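TICKET: design request
STATUS: open
ATTACHED STRUCTURE:
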């Protein structure tokens, strides 16, 4: 296994920022380094300089690099108790004052979370009154999200999660199996807008009743988490909700006093200050 030094990582991130405007300098260094080493081995690069040159000269390869660097491990109804709280508490609270609900999945990866939300909303009878925007930095993974095609093997875990969530049907009502692949019911996401968006450098583009950014920021260092959380706060309506990952927290950051805890176990926060 190759080892690389901090100076090599900085050299690589400088090339990427200069060429493509992507800023990886504030990613958690241990996680970023581990993934770069994996790419060196996967593509058989002799050193960082060879990788940097390939990235600089080949935009298509850069897209592959982004796919490898960004984390795309996800599942439907991950943490079933989170989804029960969404269904039983959070969304009903929003609907007390609104007929329509707007949701942003920030860092949507391959789309399992988006389908989870769409199924939840359909079973609540409010999918038609919902607007969902799903974004990710990785164009390739966004395409997988748009297609909504998953391996049958992965669906076994998704179905177990759905049972623990206490869904009102069986999950297989929402997909069709062909040639070992599960094709999700596209009508669930007919009104979902999938967009490429960079949480690090991208601008605030709208306000939402619910923003989900779960298990994304654990790969950022504290400065970058702070910057991203400010943007997420600006993206949530007053009295709207922000959901982050179970290993993430708001208590230390600059905008901590703008939220109250809606559910501590599931890391769901309510925005109380503009």
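STATUS: resolved
RESOLUTION: sequence designed for all positions
ATTACHED SEQUENCE:
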């Amino acid at each position: 296994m190759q080892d690389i030094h901090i100076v090599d990582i900085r050299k690589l991130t400088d090339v990427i920022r200069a060429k493509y405007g992507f800023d990886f300098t504030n990613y958690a260094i241990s996680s970023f380094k581990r993934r770069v080493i994996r790419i060196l081995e996967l593509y058989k690069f002799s050193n960082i300089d060879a990788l940097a040159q390939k990235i600089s000269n080949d935009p298509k390869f850069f897209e592959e690099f982004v796919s490898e660097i960004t984390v795309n491990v996800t599942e439907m109804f991950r943490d079933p108790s989170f989804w029960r709280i969404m269904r039983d508490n959070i969304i009903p609270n929003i609907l007390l004052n609104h007929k329509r609900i707007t949701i942003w999945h920030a860092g949507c990866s391959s789309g399992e979370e988006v389908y989870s939300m769409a199924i939840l909303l359909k079973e609540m009878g409010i999918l038609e009154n919902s607007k969902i925007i799903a974004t990710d930095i990785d164009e390739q993974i966004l395409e997988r999200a748009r297609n909504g095609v998953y391996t049958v093997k992965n669906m076994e875990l998704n179905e177990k999660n759905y049972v623990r969530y206490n869904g009102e049907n069986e999950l297989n009502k929402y997909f069709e199996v062909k040639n070992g692949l599960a094709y999700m019911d596209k009508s669930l996401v007919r009104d979902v807008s999938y967009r490429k968006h960079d949480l690090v450098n991208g601008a605030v583009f709208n306000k939402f009743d619910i923003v989900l950014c779960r298990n994304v920021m654990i790969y950022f260092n504290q400065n970058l988490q702070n910057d991203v959380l400010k943007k997420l706060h600006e993206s949530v309506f007053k009295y709207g909700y922000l959901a982050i990952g179970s290993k993430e927290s708001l208590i230390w950051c600059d905008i901590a006093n703008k939220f109250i805890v809606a559910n501590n176990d599931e890391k769901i926060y309510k925005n109380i200050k503009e």
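CLOSING REMARK: The beta strands are 101-106, 130-136, 149-151, 175-178, 181-184, 193-196, 208-213, 236-244, 259-263, 268-271. The CA atoms of residues 233 and 271 lie 7 Å apart.
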